[in-house]
Structures are given as C-alpha cells and as structure tokens.
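Support request, please re-run this one:
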Amino acid sequence: MNKLRKNVIYQMAYRVLTIITPLITAPYLSRTLGANCLGVYSYTLSSVNYFVLFAMLGTETYGNREIARVSAHGDPDELSQSFWEIYALQKCSSLLAIAAYLLYVLSVHENRLIALLQGIWLISTMLDINWFFFGIEQVRFTVTRNFMVKAASVLCILLFVKSEKDLILYVVIMGASVACSQIFIWTSMFTHSRLIRRIMLIMKLVNMMPRIRVIMNIPVKGIHGRKRNLMEKSL
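Re-run finished. Output below.
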C-alpha cells in the first residue's frame, strides 16, 4: 500500500471518529449539563474561535504547502529555516490574538471565568504545528495522536462531568485535551535535531517578510476550513 493511500485511510478513520464522538457525548451532556450550560459553552467557544482564526489565518495552509515543497529538496537546513520562520509568524499572530482576547474577557460581565478558560484554545493554537507533519507526510503520527486525545477526552467527560456544576470542569477538559495534544506533538520534534539546533533562525525577521506577504494573500476559503476543524475539535 503506497504512502498516499495510507494517509487517506488515516484521515478517513479520524473523520469517522469525529462523527461518532458527538453521538456518544451529545445525549450525555444534554442530560448532565443541560441546555443552559451547553448554551454558555457554545457561546464562549464561538467567541474565542474568532480570535483563533486570526491567530492561524493563512499559516496552516501556507505552512503545509511550503514544508511539503522544501522537504522534497531533501535539505534539512532549508527545512529547519522554513519551519522556524513560519512558526515565528504563527507565534507572533497568536500572541496578538491572546492579548486581544484578554481585553475582550475584561469587557465580559457574564460568565467571565468560562470565557477566560476558553482561552486555553488560543494557547493550543500557538503550539499547533500539525502543518509541519502534514507537510512532511507524517499523517499517521498526527491522526494517531488526535485519536488517542479524542478518546481520552470522551472518557474524562463520562467519568467527571455529572451535573451542571461541572461546566467549568467540562470547559477545562475540552481545552486541556487539545493543549496536551499540541504539547505531545512538540516532544516528537526532538527527533528532528536540526530543527531544534536552528532555533535562532526565528530571529531573522528579514527573511520572514516574503512569507508575511504570501500568508496575507491566502484565500478567504481557508477561513472556512479552519472553522470546520475547530468545530470538530470542540465536539
């Protein structure tokens, strides 16, 4: 079985999981949390998602494409430079989004704690480097990790979310599961030793300017794809 076919199968398997998961959790959460708590969760999540879209706008699509192009050359140094330059842009935009979101949270008068905890999604976005592994065609690694994290989050929901009083716990479980997923993927980066050794390349801002121009020209349709991914993660 060739690599492309395997990647498609892994992607399809994960898509099936994202469809099945709500069938398990939705009835349970409707009974335990109730409509009011679920409404609060959905509203605060939709609010933070706008900031997440700003933090990742264009980077995911461009990063995947650029890493795929560079990795085809077989030059580890060029791959390292491209990764750190793209990630530096992502980190800068994420920090701006986090700062803006904190200002938003300060203006919120109801459910401020819930809104603040939803900020975990922004931290996860700053750590999100799935585009790198998709670029080097290590789809199995990312899908397997996502599968394990999704299963663990469902288990935690079934074990710990028992009533409306557990809304905060539910918010933490959903946000922390994504954050842990991103932290886990960073541990695998140590296998790419050249990427770690070349970390100072993120300081070469002059080399980042062409990338900024390309990212800003990413079509708006990338926003819809990102919104779909966010909704899958939140289920």
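The longest helix spans residues 76-107. Residues 200-206, 219-224 have pLDDT under 50 and may be disordered.
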